[in-house]
Amino acid sequence: MAGRPRQFDRDAALMKARDAFWARGYEGVSMADLVETLGLASARIYAAFGSKETLFREAIALYDEGEGGFATRALAEEPTVHGAIERILIEAIETYTRPGHPQGCMVVSAATNCASENDGIREWLAELRRRRTLSLVERLEKAIADGELSPDTDAQALGDYFATMLHGLSVQARDGVPKARLMASVPVALRSLD
């Protein structure tokens, strides 16, 4: 009796693809790499995910629901703007420097530079980053309205600053800057809220 084909675990395949894209970026992962990483024939990958781009978008969504969702959770759960920003910075560093996992932020590093045929992916990721900045600005505006921050606080500038900080932490983590050094920057950054 011939053996039946292995059961396909779509979730496991998506996690493997996420880690490959996270480590090497959108253009750095070829279809041949996906075949090898997922252990599936390209026809099966296309049948399950439609295209490399669709698989990448699903991988980003998986990242955002899990590891990459720390900022969304902190903004929703922390009662003070100081607590939210502190938690975001600390959890960013913890996420970006985890041993045995890709370093940095997947959304920051996956496609900052692309060939022109991948402009759609580059722009989509840029929009995700712009939305993160907007969420920071909105939380800072709420803190101003609630009297948590001085009325003359520039929420846009401060939101841009913390977004830049997050992007910089991602790059530093990918460059191998140790977690302790990155953590030392958090109190310095939080002084901007005083």
Automatic annotation (TrEMBL):
InterPro entries: DNA-bd_HTH_TetR-type_CS, Homeodomain-like_sf, HTH_TetR, Tet_transcr_reg_TetR-rel_C_sf, TetR_C. It comes from the Bacteria. Pfam families: TetR_C_13, TetR_N. Residues 30-49 bind DNA. SUPFAM superfamilies: Homeodomain-like (SSF46689), Tetracyclin repressor-like, C-terminal domain (SSF48498). Residues 7-67 form the HTH tetR-type domain. PROSITE patterns: HTH_TETR_1, HTH_TETR_2. Keywords: DNA-binding, Transcription, Transcription regulation. This is TetR/AcrR family transcriptional regulator. The lineage of its organism: Bacteria, Pseudomonadati, Pseudomonadota, Alphaproteobacteria, Sphingomonadales.
